[in-house]
Write a structure and sequence with these properties.
Purple Acid Phosphatase, chain A, domain 2; Metallophosphoesterase; alpha/beta; single chain; 7-stranded mixed beta sheet; metal-binding; metal ion binding; 6-stranded mixed beta sheet; 266 residues; Metallo-depent_PP-like
């Protein structure tokens, strides 16, 4: 099974880049399932029904999120209204939505889990390591005869993400880091057939600061006065993703390959 995981989609330019680039990748690599982190898709802050619909029409099947999951206050019920969007599983149990879901692809069931890190991250979240154990011990999930398990670990530090990779190794198909918007070069297969990358990067403005206009972020550093985040809508855009090939008979990953494209959005 060929699964494409797309890094954090940032703003309108990110959504348009997905629409322009994804169809060709799906065709060329015979993609069975497309997962994307969409927490920055609504102008860099959360998600909306319209942005999700736009990305679905572009070919994305499922959406994970992270610390910006609930930034858009206009759509508080979106996580309960859509069964293909999840928020971090180690958020409060009273938070809207779910932290994991099972999707069916060609009669194969894939479990997708969203987790958020705690090191240098805002919020008082449950331990992501213990939460993973809790999810994997769920007998209802075990009864579904899963063909693959994909984790999005949305975290700041490399150390927390790589330790999640080692902790989950041999128990899941892939541990894929998000949040920093910079794709790392450490894609590999861990022991037990678990694909890993510290960060899958982003889709957005390529010549700015993590997808945000660099003029404002530079001024923040130079003056120590926080400036508004401005998301450019035109210019050179980057599309970061990873392709994971899974043996659905034992849900072990065979390969994990970065796929990066650049495109001018006018």
């Amino acid at each position: 099974m060929n699964i494409l995981f797309i890094g954090d989609i940032v703003g309108k330019i990110g959504r348009e880049t997905v629409a322009r680039v994804l169809p060709e990748i799906k065709r060329d690599h015979k993609i069975d399932l497309v997962i994307a982190n969409a927490e920055n898709s609504a102008h860099g802050a959360g998600i909306t029904g319209d942005t999700i619909k736009e990305l679905e029409e572009a070919g994305v099947n499922f959406f994970t999120t992270g610390d910006h999951a609930f930034d858009n206050k206009k759509h508080p019920g979106i996580f309960d209204e859509h069964d293909n969007i999840i928020r971090p599983a180690n958020y409060s149990r009273r938070a809207p939505g779910r932290g994991y879901a099972v999707v069916t692809v060609k009669d194969k069931k894939i479990l997708i889990i969203s987790l958020i890190g705690r090191v240098f991250m805002s919020g008082n979240h449950e331990c992501p390591f213990h939460k993973l154990d809790e999810i994997l011990a769920n007998t209802d999930l075990l009864d579904k005869k899963l063909s693959g398990i994909i984790i999005d670990i949305h975290a700041e530090t490399t150390s927390e993400k790589i330790n999640m990779g080692h902790y989950a190794a041999g128990r899941v198909s892939a541990v894929l880091g998000t949040h920093t918007h910079i794709m790392t070069a450490d894609n590999k297969i861990l022991s037990g057939g678990t694909a890993y990358i510290t960060d899958a990067g982003m889709v957005g403005a390529a010549e700015e600061s993590l997808g945000i206009a660099k003029e404002g972020t530079l001024k923040t550093f130079l003056t120590q006065i926080k400036q508004p985040h401005v998301i450019p809508e035109k210019g050179l855009a980057i599309f970061n993703s990873v392709l994971i090939v899974i043996n659905s008979k034992n849900y072990q990953a065979k390969t994990i390959k970065p796929i990066t494209k650049f495109i001018n959005i006018k």
